[in-house]
Amino acid sequence: MEETPFVRIIKIKQYFCVKETNKTITDMKKLILFALLLIGSITTAFAQNPAEIKFSSLTYDFGKFSEKDPVKTCKFTFTNVGEQPLVINQAVASCGCTVPKYTKEPILPGKSGEIEVTYNGAGKALGHFKKSITVRTNGKVEITRLYIEGEMEE
Question: Which residues, other chains included, contact 128 with Cβ-Cβ below 8 Å and sequence gap of 6+?
Fold first, then answer.
């Protein structure tokens, strides 16, 4: 019995449909595997407790001081209360009259460090001032703001 063109077309169509279905199943398996790997990676990343910085105080008040002695320095102490080493990436003051110096080495969990802030009021207006220092870390909270304030008198 000879195959008619119609029967040939049906067989070719069935062949490609089966092939396409197998390709779809393979693609689906790849997608499911990728999704499981992604979920596993995210779960692992969140399971680790990052570094965490905790300051003893976020504000320092110099009080009243004379313009004849305009340079004042204070220290902000902090502790890494996280489970990973803490790195201070940057400490930037809101004004050029304020200069922060900070620990550059990683602070191990449970250990402490400090940020020393120097305010130079020479040539600045008398009266109350308030300056901020923005601290950027690799910690759970990436940005912390510290403040210094005081009142410079004659």
Answer: 149, 150, 151
Supply φ then ψ for residue 115, to 5 degrees: -120, 120
Helix, strand or coil for residue 22? helix
Phi and psi at 40, nearest 5°, equal: -65, -40
- How many alpha carbons lie under 13 Å from residue 12 in its C-beta half-sphere? 7
Listed residue (56, 58, 102, 113) closest to 80, CA to CA = 113
- Contact, 81 vs 61, CB < 8 A? no
Is this structure's pTM higher than 0.70? no
- For residue 154 the two structure tokens come to 């004659």
Q: How many CB atoms lie within 10 A of CB 102?
A: 18
Distances (CA, A) of 105 to 28, 77, 87, 110: 47, 15, 7, 14
Note down pLDDT in tens along the chain; length 154 residues.
Answer: 577 776 777 776 666 665 555 666 677 777 777 767 777 666 665 557 899 999 999 999 999 999 999 999 999 999 999 999 999 999 999 999 999 999 899 999 999 999 999 999 998 999 999 999 999 999 999 999 999 999 999 8
